[in-house]
Write a structure and sequence with these properties.
single chain; 366 residues; 5-stranded antiparallel β-sheet; 2 helices
């Protein structure tokens, strides 16, 4: 290696490893043939940067940004690492399929669903400073889990299975040490049943059932009905609702819809630049839901829901006849224009962004 190349590699390593926690976190991924690496916007490995095990499926950052945790959904170990070097600091025993959260400096929490238990929502809180843990089991089926400040907020619904929900909906706030701080039974607006969709977004719940949609303020119970087309809506970021071809902007303080639009296409929605990108760059809307860009012929993808990083969209294209032709597609988030494709059985995510995007070919090709 020449001196110039060595210097460039060292410079790239320094930029990725010494980047302040407030800066945009790096893109991580693997083409299926090696370990998870730090990637540039074109999905090329950044030379000289550290790596994670090939089995890594998710990461979460500590509140101060100096550490992160990585784990595999098929493994039984969560590893706490230095953000600067990726070197292991501690290893914690977890259940397979668990999600992880980091609500406080020295407390990591995991959540997993175990249907054979009488209380199937299992929460574990790890105290990193003292090396201890606490397990909490909640009644009901877990619908949503979200970190809210130093709390873990869990939304559950009663019933023997997700297909046969009987209610009630309950919001449980759990402290970083694994102690329940508050339980709150959600008051259902008139016309809603236990079969309603219920989506959590910090201090708001979205109840959605056919022609009925409503916003409910957590712990206060203030409720307002929304005037939206029929559908089962979900949150897109903190300010938008989405179902199929419909988008709506929410005024969280007033509990109302301030703008709505029919996009004309059944596609995913991703928050970007204060607005929303529809599909894999099919169209882009600003904060007021005015269409500001469109691409009538976006790159074809499986529609898993693109990953947004560094102003680009990343999604997967699965070839069911020849797995060697499975690839990742890259598009410009601002214009929707195709940028490139990279062959491989890719998985990728942003450091600290939770679960990686990856293709499960058995589900796609059935």
């Amino acid at each position: 290696m020449t001196v110039a190349k060595a210097f460039a590699a060292c410079a790239a390593t320094f930029m990725v490893m010494a980047m302040p926690a407030s800066a945009e976190e790096p893109l991580l991924g693997s083409d299926g043939k090696g370990r998870v690496r730090v990637l540039d916007p074109d999905l090329h490995i950044v030379p000289g940067t550290p790596a994670l095990p090939k089995a890594t499926d998710a990461t979460v950052l500590s509140p101060d940004g100096r550490r992160f945790a990585s784990w595999s959904f098929h493994g039984r170990r969560l590893t706490v690492r230095s953000r600067r070097t990726f070197r292991p600091i501690a290893r914690l025993p977890i259940e397979t399929g668990a999600d992880a959260y980091w609500p406080a400096r020295d407390h990591v929490m995991t959540a997993v669903y175990r249907p054979w238990l009488e209380r199937p929502a299992v929460i574990r809180a790890f105290d990193l400073r003292h090396g201890t843990s606490r397990t909490l089991r909640l009644c009901g089926l877990p619908l949503e889990t979200e970190r809210v400040g130093r709390l873990l907020r869990v939304l559950t619904v009663g019933g023997p299975d997700f297909c046969c929900r009987t209610g009630p909906f309950v919001v449980t706030d759990i402290g970083a040490a694994g102690v329940v701080k508050r339980r709150w039974r959600v008051p259902l607006p008139a016309g809603f049943t236990a079969g309603a969709g219920m989506r959590l977004s910090r201090n708001l719940l979205l109840a959605t059932q056919g022609r009925r949609q409503a916003l409910i303020r957590v712990h206060r119970g203030t409720t307002k009905r929304l005037d939206l087309p029929r559908g089962f809506y979900d949150w897109v970021g903190r300010r938008f609702l989405h179902d199929g071809r419909h988008l709506a902007r929410v005024d969280r303080r007033a509990l109302s819809v301030s703008a709505a639009v029919d996009t004309g296409v059944e596609a995913t929605a991703t928050p970007f630049a204060g607005g929303v990108v529809v599909g894999f760059g099919r169209a882009r809307y600003d904060a007021g839901l005015r269409r500001v860009a469109e691409n009538p012929a976006p790159a074809p993808t499986q529609g898993f829901g693109p990953l947004l990083a560094g102003g680009r969209l990343y999604d997967l294209v699965v070839d069911c006849d020849d797995s060697d032709r499975t690839r990742a597609a890259i598009a410009d988030a601002t214009t929707g224009a195709a940028v490139a494709e990279r062959r491989g059985r890719w998985k990728f995510g942003v450091l600290g962004g939770g679960e990686f995007d990856q293709a499960y070919a058995d589900d796609v090709c059935d």
